[in-house]
């Protein structure tokens, strides 16, 4: 299934514009709540000095991939991380955390993709990690020129470049999800989850 960039749900709040690949908040679609353990793929553009004030999560892992700019993340245990392009930040929430996420720059916008999965971690953690990374059998990787895989479930999201899946052209903001074999060719940046 292809979900085009223009078909994503859109939320606008002070200093933050978000495009959702799955149901989120007021945007409820009973046929689009998850793909395996993956429950959110949100692309945010955050103005300088803006972001998400303190809020809570539990039972999920939040994987943040910065496309451009710099993210500052802090949780209620005093863990603080700064993340830039090409880095991935993983917040595992376990029984519950509060955190805030802001654009670390006073001048430049921040663009990032946050991906949320159901998670069985027994204690909260916050860490920058190398890719590929794995969470409860779900694997995340970033592809730059092409991908071939065969998995029970997969989800691919384009952040940069033009990609082809057979005769279909897949461009920035588009995502593809399915099962079985995935073959995509292109150049740019493709965020890929394989899911149990």
Task: List the secondary-structure elements in sequence, H or E.
Answer: EEEEEEEEEEEEEEEEE
What's the helix count?
0
CATH superfamily of the largest domain: Jelly Rolls
Largest sheet: 7 strands, antiparallel
The assembly state of the depicted protein chains is single chain
What is the overall shape? globular
The poorly predicted ranges are none
Q: What is the distance, rounded to the nearest whole angstrom, between the alpha carbons of the first and last residues?
A: 18 Å
Quantity of strands, as a count: 17
The figure for the number of domains is: 2
Level-1 CATH class name of the largest domain: Mainly Beta
The level of helicity is: under 10%
Strand content: over 45%
- From the coordinates shown, what is the CATH architecture of the largest domain? Sandwich
Order of strands, main sheet, comes to 2-3-4-11-6-9-12
Q: Using only CA atoms, what is the Rg?
A: 16 Å
Q: Determine the mean pLDDT.
A: 95
Counting helices, strands and paired strands, the structural category is mainly beta
Could you say what the CATH topology of the largest domain is called? Jelly Rolls
């Amino acid at each position: 299934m292809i979900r085009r960039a223009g078909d994503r749900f859109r939320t606008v709040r002070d200093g933050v514009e978000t495009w959702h690949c799955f149901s989120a908040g007021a945007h409820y679609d009973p046929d689009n709540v998850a793909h395996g353990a993956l429950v959110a793929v949100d692309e945010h553009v955050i103005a300088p000095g803006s972001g998400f004030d303190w809020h809570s999560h539990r039972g999920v892992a939040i994987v943040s991939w910065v496309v451009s700019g710099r993210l500052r993340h802090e949780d209620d245990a005093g863990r603080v991380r700064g993340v830039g392009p090409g880095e991935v930040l993983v917040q595992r929430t376990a029984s519950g955390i509060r955190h805030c996420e802001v654009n670390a720059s006073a001048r430049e916008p921040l663009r990032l993709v946050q991906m949320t999965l159901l998670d069985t971690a027994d204690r909260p953690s916050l860490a920058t990690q190398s890719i590929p990374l794995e969470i409860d059998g779900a694997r995340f990787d970033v592809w730059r020129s092409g991908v071939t895989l065969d998995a029970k479930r997969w989800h691919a999201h384009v952040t940069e470049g033009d990609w082809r899946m057979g005769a279909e052209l897949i461009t920035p903001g588009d995502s593809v999800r399915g099962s079985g074999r995935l073959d995509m060719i292109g150049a740019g940046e493709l965020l890929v989850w394989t899911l149990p």
